[in-house]
User: Fold this.
Amino acid sequence: QPLTPQNCRNILNMKSFLSSGRHWKANFVFPISRTMWSVRVATFSSDNPAEYGEVKLRDKAILRATSGAGGSGKMAYDVRRGKARGKPQGGDGGPGGNIYFRASRSCRSLPNRPSVTAGDGHTGGANGRSGRTGSNVTLSVPVGTIIRKIKMNANREITNSEEVADLDEDSAEILACQGGLGGAGNQQLGVKFEAEEGKPGESKLFELELRILADVGLVGYPNAGKSTFVNTITRTKSKIAPYAFTTLQPHVGSVHFTDGEQFTIADIPGLIDGAHENRGLGHEFLRHIERTSVLVYVVDCSGQDEMVPWTVLKNLRKEIELYNSEMVKKPSIVLANKCDVKYLRVNQKFRKLQETFPDLPIFKISALNSEGYQPVVATLRELVIPSPKNNNEE
Assistant:
């Protein structure tokens, strides 16, 4: 760039912006000549947040929203030299700012803030000029957010809850709080010595609940290998460790195909017996798979757990049915994981699992060695993404 004062300011602003980003890095080369500077920028993909520290997913939040108050009306007059106060000319106050909730696919977590307030309207001006409108506030929330208006007692217990919106589409928006009306000036009232105060804004308490919108949801006991499976077929970096309850929050990854098609898959914390009664993570887990199109049951076939895989699968389906009987009717497949442990009669257990559930597609995989994934991904694609041939037949 030419070395002008304006470009110097632009370069300094760019350096400040790039240095603050998590996925950007800027290297500056000074100078090319006496009048030229060069900026070299390297960008890093945001698909791998583990390199820069993973952002925690907030799937529940409570915040107070307060819209702006209306501005007061103006008390002004037509004043001329040598004459008394003339006719009223005070303008109306501006309305207060509104508060909106808007769903955005680029937003991954609910806002981490206790309250939000819109701007107040401005006072009206002389000569009949109206005051400026208060600034609106639009809060971005993930797609799949349910918004409820609630009331709480002194112990911060919810006493009343009313669902006001389900933002299940990108760019869906609702008006949460309407700004207060501006007060009338004395010109509108037609009275010299009177002007109205602006109306106060609304103040409401909202509960935000995120229910993940994913095409495929993984269901399994803790340490069954769900996170390893998702990490292998997507770019997510779920925590993996040889103990139970490693995953404590949902992770969503995307599987991309060369023809441009894709589907999303959610790795959700492990399920335990009694989850429908809110044991363990309970409802915190089950509500996230209500909106998935396909369920994938992951069972441990190595025999290292006390229960055999067919009993585990029966218990998993029972917990889901007790929580919501419609969920168990969704298209499902079963992944028999840890089949690389050959000395524990894996083949016998796999055949027994097939005999017990003849109506479910069951795949033998090894998450540790990344074996058996291709037929699983192909089957999930057929279940999630209808082929053009099937559409024509319909």
